[in-house]
Amino acid sequence: MLILEDRYDVIIAGSGVSGLYTALNLPAGVNVLLLCKKELTLSNSNLAQGGVAAVLDRENDNFSYHINDTMISGGHKNNEEAVKVLVEEGPADVMRVIELGADFDKAETGGYQLTLEGGHSRRRIVHHKDSTGEEMVRALIEEVKKRRNVTIMEKTFLTELSKTASGFFAELIVEDTLFVTTASYVVLATGGIGRVYKYTTNSAIATGDGIRLAYELGAKIAHLDYIQFHPTAFASMEGRERFLISEAVRGEGAYLLNCYKERFMHRYDERKELAPRDVVSHSIMMEYRRTGSDKFYLDITHRDSDYVKNRFPMIYKRCLYEGVDITKDKIPIFPCQHYLMGGIDVDLQAKTSVDRLYAVGECSHTGVHGINRLASNSLLEALVFSRRAAADIVSRMVAGEPKVNSPLYTPANGTAPLPDGLRTQIREIMQKAHFVLPDAGAAEKGLRTIEQILQRLDSRMYRKTPDYCEAKSLCTVAYLILKEAART
Ligand SMILES: Cc1cc2nc3c(=O)[nH]c(=O)nc-3n(C[C@H](O)[C@H](O)[C@H](O)COP(=O)(O)OP(=O)(O)OC[C@H]3O[C@@H](n4cnc5c(N)ncnc54)[C@H](O)[C@@H]3O)c2cc1C
Q1: Which residues of the chain are modeled with pLDDT < 50?
Q2: Residues with active-site annotation
C-alpha cells in the first residue's frame, strides 16, 4: 500500500552509502522519505570491493600522507580544503560505521587489517574481505530500518524536481503511476553515470539521474569530463556490466602483463603496478598501441593460493564462474568506465548552488578527487559529506527556516513511447569519443548528434517512464561531458 505523504522535511534520493548515512545523521524529529529506484541494495555502494581509506594507524600513517597521496592522484587539481576535511574527519565516520555494525577484517596482531592500494603510500584501507560495500550497506540498511522517522520506498523513481519558495515538488513514478509530493530539502544521492558507456563496472542504476535533475533546476555542474576508467575490469564477459578486479589485487603483488605475458608498467611509470589507476589505464592503452593487441592480464599466481582465496574470496569465486582460477591462471583484463570525479558542484556542507538542494556521494563534486580519484576515497567521501549535509539541514531547521507549504498538482505527461535504440546510440558515441585516450574529432561529431537527441527527448511528447527518464539522464550527462571536453 502506498503511504506517500504530501509533505516531508527531507527527501533523500538514493540508498547507497551516501543516502543511507545522510538518513542516519538526521535526528528523530525530521520526517524523511528515502527513495531508491530499484531494490534497496542495487547500487554502486553494494559493489565496492577494496575498502575505505582512513588514517587509523597513527604510528605508521598520518593525515599529511593521506592528503598528499590524494593530491598526487588528483593531479593537484583537488580542492585542498575539501581534501583536508575528508582526511581529518574521515576516521571518525569509519569508526561510527563500525559502531553501527559494519564488520571489517581484523589483523592477527590486533586492530584492523589495513591493506594497500594503488596510489597509497601507506597501508590504510579497512575492508570486509573483498566485499566491503555490501557489508557497509547491510549494516547501514539495518540501522535505517530501525528509524521511525524514515520512510523507505523501493522501486520509486524520482523523475522531476521543481522549486517552490520553501522547498521542492518531487514527481515520483511508482508502479507506472506518477505521484507528486513536496519536501523542504532534497538530498540527491543518486550515484554515478557508468551506464552512459558501453562497458562499465557500475550497477544498472548508474544513469546520472541526479545530475540531470540538478542541471534542470539550474544547479552548477562541474567537471563532468573527469571520468575514471578502471584499468582492471574482467575482460571476457558478455553484457554491459564488467566485473571489477580490485586495485587491492595489485596492492597484494599482482603483475600486469601484455599480450606476450610480459610485465610492461616499467615502460610508463616508476611505480609500476602500484601507480594510480589513471596512469595504469593510460599505460595499458599505450601498450595496446605499441603491441597492436588488446589482450592484457593480471597475474597473482605467484602468491600462496590459500592466501589469495581467503583475501579475495568474491573475486576468486566470480572468476572461477567465468572459467578462470586466479590461483593458477592469468586473469584477462581491460580498462572500462568506473567512476565520475565531477558532478553536481557542492560546497563543504554538500550544498549545491540551488537553495535547499544538496548532493552527496558519487553524483556530487566536492573537489576531493581532482582529476583522478585515489582508490577507496569515494566511500569515505560518501560518509563525510553526507554527514555534513545532514548537519547543515538540521541547523537550518533549528534556525526556523520555513517549511515547504504548497498545494499539490497533477503532473503533466506525454503519450508517445520512448523510441528504441537511443540509449545504444548514446553509448556508442561516448565509447568512441571520450574513453581513456579521448578523440577530439569523435567528440565534436558526437556532441552534435547528442544535442539533437536531447532536443527530441525534451519535447514533452514522451510518456514519463523510468526508461524515458533514464534515457534523458544519459543524454544530458553525455551532452555535459562532451561539452566540457570540447572546452578543454
Ligand atoms: C565495482 C565497484 C567497486 C568499487 N570499489 C570501491 C572501493 O573499494 N572503495 C571505494 O571507496 N569506492 C569504491 N567504488 C565506488 C563507490 O562504491 C561509489 O562511488 C559509492 O558507493 C557511491 O555511493 P553513492 O551513495 O553515491 O551511490 P550508489 O551507491 O550508487 O547509490 C545510488 C542510489 O541512488 C538511487 N537512484 C538513482 N537514481 C534514482 C532516481 N531517479 N530515483 C530514485 N533513486 C535513484 C539508486 O537506486 C541507488 O539506491 C566502487 C565502485 C564500483 C562500481
Answers
A1: none
A2: 277
